[in-house]
Each structure stands twice: as C-alpha cells, then as structure tokens.
C-alpha cells in the first residue's frame, strides 16, 4: 500500500471489522492498525481521532443502508399499495444486511450517540424521515393503523434489527424472510 487512498481504504475496512468484533468503544487503535497492516501513526495521518474514523465508517455504511431505504420508498405511484412499497423497503434492508453483515452489525447493533457528528446525525434523521413518510402516506390512505408514525416505524425497525441479530451467522431463507415481512406488516396495517 503506497497510495494514500489505499491506506485510507485499508484503515476503513479494518475499522469496520474491528469495530464490529470489539465494538467502537472497546476498540484500541493498535489492534486496528495491525489489522489494517499500518502503523498507528498512519491512522492518525488519515483521521485526526478515533471519533473521526468512527464517523467516517458510520457515514460510509449508513449512506449505503439509507440508499436501500430511501430508494425503495421514494416512488409514490398513485395506485400502488403502500404494502408493495413496504415490501420493497423491507427486502432492500434485508439485502443490505445479508450483503454487508459486518456493516449492518456495526450500524445497528451498537450505540453511536457518544461520538457521532452532526452530519451523521442528520443522515440518520433523513433515513428515519423517509420511512416515517411511508408510514404517514399509508395512514393517509387508510392502509396503516393510526398512531404516531415515529412509534410505528420504531416498532417495525426494531423487529427488523432483532430478526437480523437472531439470524446472524445462520442466514435468512425465503420462508423466514416472508414470515418476518408479513408479521411486521400485520403490526402496521389497519385492522
């Protein structure tokens, strides 16, 4: 690795693995540097602090997860049922979690409030807002039960995180995927 971009990428990749394995709070820079194949000083040449590195890793992966969520709910076709949009969002999130299990575990199975910067907080808020807009649209059409959209979205996303955590390592087959999607939709839909 002679190019600064290669070194930065090696550090970011190693940070994701180490943060996932030991948590952000439990990670020391020496094992991270060893995993990246660089000296500890090299990390600080690319990232002024552990917080800056944590924010860079979080931003990279939360942006990618957000694309799955936002893209899946963005299209508002007048005659398309909210259920279909919800299904796209659910399966998009599943696809991300399956394709990037370490990134999903880092993002959603750890606490980040102690170090996230304003840009990452705003990114997270945009993703939640997109999902909340889907809930609100479903309520306006009478397809989703009345109630605070934030609470309903939190219940649905909490179920998703729990499902992914319980399936980590064992995989998610089509039957389990359909069961989980339908169960969460039943939680949201108008009775």
Automatic annotation (TrEMBL):
Domain spans labelled HTH tetR-type: 5-65
The source's domain of life comes to Bacteria
Ordered alphabetically, the record's keywords are: DNA-binding
What Pfam families does its record include? TetR_C_10, TetR_N
InterPro entries on file:
BscR_C (IPR032551), Homeodomain-like_sf (IPR009057), HTH-type_TetR-like_transc_reg (IPR050109), HTH_TetR (IPR001647), Tet_transcr_reg_TetR-rel_C_sf (IPR036271)
Q: Per its UniProt record, what SUPFAM superfamilies does this chain match?
A: Homeodomain-like (SSF46689), Tetracyclin repressor-like, C-terminal domain (SSF48498)
Q: Which molecular function GO terms apply here?
A: DNA-binding transcription factor activity; transcription cis-regulatory region binding
Q: DNA-binding region(s): which residue ranges? A: 28-47
Q: Which PANTHER family match?
A: HTH-TYPE TRANSCRIPTIONAL REGULATOR RUTR, HTH-TYPE TRANSCRIPTIONAL REPRESSOR FATR
- This chain belongs to the protein called TetR family transcriptional regulator
- Annotated source species: Virgisporangium aliadipatigenens
């Amino acid at each position: 690795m002679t190019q600064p971009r290669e070194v930065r990428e090696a550090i970011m990749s190693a940070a994701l693995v180490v943060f996932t394995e030991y948590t952000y709070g439990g990670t020391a820079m020496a094992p991270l540097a060893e995993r990246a194949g660089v000296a500890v000083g090299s990390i600080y040449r690319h990232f002024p602090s552990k917080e800056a590195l944590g924010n860079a890793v979080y931003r990279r992966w939360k942006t990618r997860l957000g694309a799955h969520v936002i893209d899946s709910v963005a299209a508002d076709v007048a005659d398309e049922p909210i259920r279909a949009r919800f299904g796209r969002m659910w399966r998009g999130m599943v696809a991300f979690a399956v394709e990037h299990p370490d990134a999903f575990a880092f993002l959603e199975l750890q606490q980040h409030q102690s170090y996230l910067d304003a840009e990452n907080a705003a990114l997270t808020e945009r993703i939640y807002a997109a999902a909340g807009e889907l809930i609100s649209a479903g309520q306006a059409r009478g397809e989703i039960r009345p109630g605070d959209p934030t609470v309903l979205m939190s219940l649905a996303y909490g179920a998703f995180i729990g499902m992914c955590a319980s399936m980590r390592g064992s995989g998610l087959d089509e039957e389990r995927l359909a069961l989980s999607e339908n169960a969460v939709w039943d939680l949201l839909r108008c009775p």
